[in-house]
Write a structure and sequence with these properties.
The complex is a heterodimer of chains A (about 220) and B (about 725). With about 220 residues, chain A is mostly beta strands. Chain A is about 15% helix and about 50% strand. In chain A, strands 1-2-3-4-5-6-8-9 form an 8-stranded antiparallel beta barrel. Chain A starts with a helix and ends in a 16-residue tail after the last strand. Helix content of chain B is about 25%, strand content about 25%. In chain B, β5 (about 90-95), α2 and β6 form a beta-alpha-beta unit. In chain B, the strands form 8 sheets. In chain B, strands 6-5-4-1-8-10-11-13 form an 8-stranded mixed beta sheet. Chain B contains 13 helices and 34 strands. Chain B has about 725 residues and is α+β, with helices and mostly antiparallel strands. The chains are: A mainly beta (about 220), B alpha+beta (about 725). The interface of A and B includes residues 206 and 219 of A.
Chain lengths: ~220, ~725
């Protein structure tokens, strides 16, 4: 198969032949697919507050792996901005967690640990502080999707409604104020999930499985 | 003031209604053609014709999914045979074509073109049958999965391909209609074993004890198993070869003298023969890049050639009739595919040589039945000719009152079908799930153990056909049942029994033809479905699909015989085409345009010399001008002849000439590979002869090659 044919094949297989936007997103998520996972692009808004300052409106954008049909570990990243004199990016964090598929195709809980840099939303100090905290994300898929039942989905997009509370400690840069500030935040978000069963967990059994349903003879070679 | 407005509003409403009605008709509901006229004289009338439907190169081939290649030429030109049968005001058109599958879009297009031509063959009397060659074009399926990703190497629906095919098929039907003349019709039936085997024997064998005991193939296979393996061992090839529907039926069509009330002994050369035999024509491998009629293409040509030579061929003489191009007035042989869902050709390996070998065996059997030298089969000048036609609405259709007595509300393809059948594996087999037999451990929902294959953009409304046309035609003491898909052996035999039991009298023949008017993929029985081999995974509407089909053939027969629907409450209107609500996607342009050919003009010297290649075929690479792509689909603009002296001995309408693009539309390789009889049975009279290519391109240009000697291994030069 020549190079151009291979590329055309890849475009059809991954992008589903549905336009360049889908292909770009597919490229973004290709590593996730290789790991047998899906990935999500999330944007949300909410509030964040510390004990020492007023609450601020925040907006976060995050990208992370996510589970499809089975529980699995995930990694991701988040950028959070706060509204002050306009929107300014205040913090970034990497996260590692675990997706618990509570009701397949409906509800997933995603506890995670976050480590980040920047500062609290209400700008307690200038400079770059360090962050460590916990996030507990609840993701709800309101629309019908094939994960609710058995299906081999080559490629899918589905939206999720996300409730994303988090809490953590900010350590200020050296020489600025006291050592730690606790920040609480909560956001409501929309996540676009991109996934595939191509490298997902097995849902059935191959034809030569000898524990076939009662009465079946299996497939002879 | 209100009273005067009421009539105005009414008029506007009526006008709006009329506009909407006109708009709603669209291209899917062509104007109804006039009713068939009463024919002159009594008794059967028949007209036969043939069409060349070979498209220009560069369309994707359909049938092997993503493994299908882009066509670069042709080996056996694709053809349709049209048989128009009529009596009184009843009329039916049987149109077997070298296509992978029919589509309702194409069926409607042919109907529309016939209506435009004023040919009174309405949609419910037009039976478009595909031979299921896997080397026919794609791009004419309104169902999105058949034109979408994974359907072929270059997916897409091209309305111009539909128009192209529709025009040529309609022309053949119109020609056959125009030739309607008094005729004698005669059914011939026999068994033809040894050409096929059951490729999914494990699934087939599961029908035992599942209500499948009525299928003769089951009994035959079981008997063979018992003989070969006491206590039931692994399937043997012999058992798999007996697990087939080996019935072959032929309807011979002869001209009858006007006014003659009966048929005497048949003429040596009939007008044509409509044959039905079940076999997957997959003797050509999926690496093929040429339009190709496969086994049935060879068989039809061999039969036509043998019928021409029939008078001169003494009984017992070797079968040497070569499948060259047909001439005007010669018999038309059309082969429709029968019960073939799980039947593969018994080829030693997939190749042109094996396709030709099997095709000649099938063609020979057809000729034997047509010639009927023992005079076993009487010909009829009159008799019943009637038919019933339903376009069943499939999603959620019921076949009984119980909760599970229904088809699934949506069609789904099982992922286990993704890797293809054993005679056409695809690269998707690298996925465990895409291999035959992959299934859920526990049944889930309507589709049971099937794991549906789906993707972003799936559209239950448009992905698969929702209408399933079924028809039953009674003619000449026999009956033809047609189904919109591929029937496994046991499904086919159950359909045949359901019809036979209700017809009231044993028909002279009862062929079950699949792949007619639309393509619903497979109809595996419930027991076969449970294994999710290729046929089960490709049964779209769930495990009751086969039962539904069998049940509705019973009802259809009741409707034909008694006029009632016999308990089937499908909302399909009898004897009418349903509105086709299609939204094909993606719409593409694949058919080469009508750009002017830059073909050489006048008589020009050929650019390269003919030679003999490693397979003993004559081959020539020729510069034929720039991109004569459209020309290849039109024999007035492109033709190849093989000449010996001044005599034309073969041409590209036969089975021996192969044309392939090798250089961006400018250089073409033409091969001539005659089927030389060169063995202990006798020498081919062509051995040692000198032949040359003559190639016509464009407006009158003619290219002639040097002469090359046809060398044979055993026979001396020129010695027959």
């Amino acid at each position: 198969m020549g190079g151009s044919r291979r590329r055309a094949w890849a475009r059809r297989a991954v992008g589903g032949g549905r336009g360049r936007g889908g292909a770009r997103f597919a490229g973004f998520c290709a590593p996730a697919l290789a790991l047998g996972s899906g990935c999500g692009l999330q944007i949300g808004a909410g509030v964040a507050a510390t004990a020492r300052g007023d609450a601020r409106a925040t907006t976060s954008v995050s990208a992370s792996l996510n589970a499809g049909r089975e529980h699995r570990g995930i990694v991701g990243a988040r950028l959070t901005g706060a509204y002050d004199d306009g929107l300014a990016i205040r913090a970034g964090a990497l996260r590692g967690g675990y997706d618990f598929v509570v009701v397949p195709g409906w509800l997933t809980l995603e506890p995670a640990i976050e480590l980040g840099a920047g500062g609290p939303a209400n700008r307690l100090y200038s400079g770059t502080g360090a962050y460590g905290g916990l996030a507990g994300t609840a993701r709800l898929r309101p629309l019908p999707n094939s994960d609710r039942g058995p299906a081999f989905n080559v490629l899918y997009f589905t939206p999720e409604l996300v409730l994303a509370p988090r809490a953590g400690f900010w350590m200020a840069p050296e020489g600025q104020g006291r050592g730690f500030d606790v920040e609480y935040a909560g956001e409501l978000a929309l996540r676009l999930v991109f996934g595939s069963d191509l490298a997902g967990p097995p849902q059935g059994r191959p034809g030569n499985d000898r524990q076939a349903p009662e009465g079946a003879e299996g497939v002879r070679p | 003031m209100t009273r005067p407005r009421a009539p105005l509003a009414l008029a506007l409403l009526i006008a709006l209604g009329a506009l909407l009605a006109c708009h709603g008709r669209g291209p899917d509901t062509p104007p109804a053609p006039p009713a068939p006229p009463a024919l002159e004289g009594e008794g059967y009338h028949a007209g036969v014709a043939r069409a060349d439907i070979t498209p220009p190169p560069h369309l994707a081939l359909f049938g092997h999914g993503p493994e299908g290649r882009i066509a670069t030429g042709f080996r056996l030109r694709l053809r349709c045979a049209a048989f128009v049968l009529a009596q009184g005001r009843e009329l039916v058109a049987l149109v077997p074509c070298d296509l992978a599958a029919p589509s309702l879009a194409l069926h409607r297009e042919v109907g529309e073109q016939l209506a435009r031509r004023g040919v009174p063959v309405p949609l419910d009397r037009l039976l478009l049958m595909a031979t299921h060659t896997h080397a026919g074009p794609a791009h004419y399926f309104e169902a999105r999965r058949y034109s979408g990703s994974f359907s072929s190497y270059a997916p897409g629906y091209d309305p111009r391909v539909v128009e192209f095919l529709g025009e040529r098929i309609a022309a053949a039907v119109a020609e056959a209609y125009g030739r309607l003349a008094p005729a004698c019709l005669s059914w011939r039936r026999d068994e033809l074993a040894g050409l096929t085997f059951n490729r999914s024997y494990a699934a087939f064998a599961r029908n035992r004890g599942a209500g499948g005991g009525e299928a003769p193939a089951l009994a035959r296979a079981a008997e063979q198993e018992r003989a070969l393996s006491r206590g039931g061992g692994p399937a043997t090839p012999a058992a798999a070869e007996r697990a087939v529907d080996a019935e072959i039926s032929v309807l011979r069509v002869d001209a009858r003298a006007p006014g003659a009330a009966s048929c005497g002994p048949g003429a040596a050369r009939p007008l044509g023969a409509f044959a039905v035999f079940g076999m997957h024509p997959t003797a050509i491998p999926n690496t093929n890049e040429l339009y190709h009629g496969d086994v049935f293409g060879f068989a039809a040509r061999a039969a036509e050639a043998c019928l021409v030579e029939g008078e001169a061929r003494p009984e017992g003489a070797p079968w040497r009739c070569e499948a060259r191009g047909p001439r005007e007035g010669e018999p038309v042989v059309g082969i429709a595919n029968g019960v073939e869902g799980d039947l593969s050709p018994k080829a030693a390996f997939q190749s042109v040589a094996e396709a030709r070998r099997l095709g000649r065996l099938l063609g020979r059997k057809i000729v034997e039945l047509v010639e009927d030298r023992e005079g076993r089969f009487p010909a009829l000048a009159r008799g019943p000719l009637d038919r019933a036609y339903w376009e069943l609405r499939l999603p959620g259709a019921r076949l009984g009152a119980g909760a599970r007595e229904a088809l699934c509300p949506t069609a789904e393809l099982g992922v286990a079908a993704g890797g293809g059948a054993r005679d056409g594996p695809t690269r998707l087999r690298l996925l465990t799930e895409a291999n035959a037999g992959y299934r859920l451990a526990r049944p889930h929902g309507c589709h049971g153990v099937k794991l549906p294959l789906t993707s972003y953009g799936a559209d239950a409304e448009h992905d698969f056909p929702r209408l399933g046309p079924v028809a039953l035609v009674r003619v000449a003491g026999g009956a033809i049942a047609t189904a919109p898909g591929e029937l496994t052996t046991v499904t086919g035999q159950r359909v045949r029994e359901a019809v036979r039991a209700r017809l009231g009298e044993a028909p002279a023949a009862l062929p079950v033809v699949g792949l007619t008017n639309s393509y619903l993929q497979y109809f595996a029985t419930g027991a076969e479905y449970e294994l999710q081999l290729y046929e089960g995974a490709s049964t779209l509407y769930g495990p009751r699909s086969s039962d539904f089909l069998v049940n509705h053939f019973g009802c259809l027969t009741n409707y034909l015989v008694r006029g009632d629907r016999g308990g089937c409450d499908n909302p399909a209107r009898p004897d009418a085409a349903e509105p086709l609500r299609a939204d094909p996607a993606p719409v593409v342009a694949r058919l080469p345009g009508d750009e002017p050919d830059e073909a050489p003009r006048g008589r020009a010297p050929i650019a390269a010399r003919a030679a003999v290649d490693g397979e003993g075929a004559f081959v020539i690479e020729a510069h034929l001008g720039r991109r004569p792509l459209r020309a290849l689909s039109d024999r007035r603009r492109f033709w190849v002849e093989i000449r010996r002296g001044g005599e034309v001995v073969d041409d590209d309408r036969g089975s021996n000439v192969e044309v392939r693009e090798v250089g961006e539309g400018e250089r073409w390789r033409v091969r001539w590979q005659p089927d030389v009889v060169d063995d202990a049975g006798g020498c081919d009279p062509r051995c040692g002869g000198r032949f040359r290519f003559v190639i016509g391109v464009g407006g009158g240009a003619q290219l002639e090659s040097n002469e090359v000697e046809l060398a044979c291994q055993r026979c001396p030069k020129g010695a027959p």
